[in-house]
Amino acid sequence: MALNNAQYEKIKREYDNDRLTSRMLLDKRTEYVNSHIPEYKALSDKLAELSLEYTKKSLSGDKTAISSFSKLAEDIRRQKEELLIIAGLDRDYLKPIYKCPDCKDTGFIDGRKCHCFKDKEIALLYDQSNIQTILKDVSFDRMSEKYYSGDDLNRFKESKQKAIGFVNNFKSDYQNLLLYGTVGTGKSLLSSCVASELLKEGHSVIYFSSSMLIDTLAKAAFDRPSSRNDRFNDVSDENSPIYDCELLIIDDLGTEITNNFTIAALFSLLNERALRKKSIIISTNLSLEELQERYTDRIFSRLTGDFTFCRLSGPDIRIVSKLAN
User: C or N: which end of the chain has fewer Cβ atoms within 10 Å?
Assistant: First the structure.
């Protein structure tokens, strides 16, 4: 995701606050233990004295000092745990407390974004894309066949089954869907149903309208920060959720301004996610012929080679439904 500076600082403050809260709680617990279990503090003081004593021995050439101190320290640790348990406290009562033990609430592991940092990025993308509003009251069961007939109905049933199969096999099969056809025939609704089901199962799903996606990619490419040390505005970051989320939904492909940048950015995105075996669902009102003409043979080849096609046709459901009411 192309985090701007304000968003990055917001996440950074959250981690700072988490560590501060943890430190304050640990200090409070330590103060309680020292005041209510004087033997515990005596053992802590003794351990500090032994550490200084055996450090001096080691520096003086005593080769057994380190191993001897380790045995004494382990014995003291066990005694301290026993004191906590006797007092009715957990043995880990005075260990650091983290929301994310993996990165210790720093957001990074060995210089790479922790999964909790990526979750925060995705949460910001959810807010930007308004996906929760889009998915409200959406499900396959609520999709009605009454607006379709003849070949339109057959195409709807076939596309719905492909979408359900996409969900059912999501964990085991790498797959992509291209939903295309005339305006208002249920393409966006079908992709939203897939997103809703996968989100319920705990998968990471990101939704973008085509114009919003291209705008995000353009801002990342052209509004780079002056500092080379700030990598968080760079959507090409290999850990960006746009490339790394389990499912990316691109809605209404063809409504964005199409130029050389759009073509290059779209191909790069399709190619990178294909290399990572990360799924995409694209919906568009364009025909296959229009897609090929608009997005060049390279992109069309990627679509035909990597995507399952779902064609929907029929009347504009939104207009029909409004007239019926």
Answer: C
